[in-house]
Write a structure and sequence with these properties.
single chain, Arc Repressor Mutant, subunit A, about 150 residues, 2 domains, mainly alpha
Length: about 150
């Protein structure tokens, strides 16, 4: 593959990646929530289990400060509870309240439904192939960036 071909493919990849990110930013805006709150609600709703703040940061790839700010706002609005688990008295578990579950049902559940509908346009094999290729791309990029930077 020539350098020009690589440049064109990289341009196309970056355009698609940025457009994908923009779709989620627009979704959060149209739902009246911040992107940080959207990803927190999305994660809590999709996994249907409590998370610690550290776990959320790892899952949503957002800085601790961003997650903390979104959590404080969600807590002030009564959408989440922070409580210690019986097994761990150091880290608080983040749990959706009844109001938080209702908010998630009216916001991020719509995003998840749209994503699942998109999956319906492809075979399970094609979705698996997409995810496997993307995972490999990320692994290779991580290694290359480590070597280059």
């Amino acid at each position: 593959m020539t350098a020009t071909e690589q440049d064109k493919l990289l341009q196309e990849y970056n355009r698609l990646y940025k457009e994908n990110c923009e779709l989620y930013a627009e979704a959060a805006k149209s739902l009246g929530i911040s992107e940080g709150a959207m990803w927190i609600l999305y994660t809590l709703h999709l996994y249907n289990r409590p998370f610690t703040q550290s776990e959320l940061c790892e899952e949503v790839f957002m800085p601790k400060q961003t997650v903390n700010s979104a959590l404080k706002k969600l807590q002030q609005e009564g959408y989440i509870l922070l409580q210690f688990s019986e097994n761990n008295k150091k880290s608080k578990q983040i749990i959706l309240t009844v109001a938080g579950k209702a908010l998630a049902d009216n916001t991020v559940a719509k995003i998840i439904a749209a994503e699942k509908n998109v999956f319906g346009h492809f075979s399970a094999d094609k979705i698996r192939e997409l995810l496997d290729c993307y995972d490999r791309y990320i692994d290779c990029l991580r290694l290359e960036m480590k070597n280059q930077l």
